[in-house]
Design goal:
The protein has eight helices and 14 strands. It has 302 residues and is α/β, with parallel strands linked by helices. The chain has two domains: 119 residues, Tetrapyrrole methylase, N-terminal domain (Cobalt-precorrin-4 Transmethylase, domain 1, 3-Layer(aba) Sandwich); 152 residues, 2-Layer Sandwich (Methyltransferase, Cobalt-precorrin-4 Transmethylase, Domain 2). Helix 6 links the parallel strand 6 and strand 7. The longest helix has 12 residues.
Amino acid sequence: MPPVTVHLIGAGPGDPDLLTVRAAELLRSAEVVVSDRPSSDPVVALAPPTAERVLVGKVPAADGRPARRALPQDEVCALLVELGRGGREVVRLKSGDPFVAARGGEEALALRAAGVPFTVVPGLSAGLAAPAFAGIPVHVRQLSRTVTVLAGNSDPEYPGEVDWDALARLGGTIVVLTGRSRIRRIAGWLIAAGMDPLTPVAGISAAGRAGAQETIRGTLAALPPRQDPPVTFVIGAVAALELDWFDGGVARTVEEAGALTPVVPRRRDGVGPTPAPDPASAPAGPASAPTSSDPEAFRAHP
């Protein structure tokens, strides 16, 4: 039997209409679909009814059912290797682009190490799609020459802290992904590194989802309030632009929605901003959901 391929597919911002033609074709012929969250269901629905659905991400409590923690990344990688050796066509669905703040690179490395063939189908990253849906061009010649995409979440496996001084000096446009719980600290580090507190900031929630998208504009000193995930932040002069073209979204300012203040850290002499402990990085408490040692509980058979 020839080797079966695992397809790492970018789902874009979640609208099936924004999938690439190749991604849609592979989903329609998939025998197994591995996804991260229920919000991907409209895309997963393109798979045949007979396809096995495997949800490995965090599932909130609903309809009397307990919440479920996400399957740890090493177990997701092991699951993909197992599925890739099982003789079926496997689609691994990733939000945005598989190789942009989505851990698709780690999964590709694990598949390569195990000798399992894979392909990559790029998707529309939220780093570009969310600002576009909010009417914010990340590149405007007169305002921004550079775009920096920052993974904003806290993870001990990152290779050290961000050089906030260098990032603040670079300027241009900064797009923050996975930074919903740390945006106050990120803003504080940028201010401590010398960025103007009045630098515009836009928070974009549920980008591209008609009736759900929300854009709130503020500044580093007056940040958008907490929004429903997924949230993408744009920092820089372009964040003040309002080319609102998407009828399915609403746009407000912090004056209308309320504002959060940044958490500005103390500085070490000559070193720069001192990262403060992030409560989002604390270990999760016990849950009544299946444990990480029970990967079968994450699988749904038709």
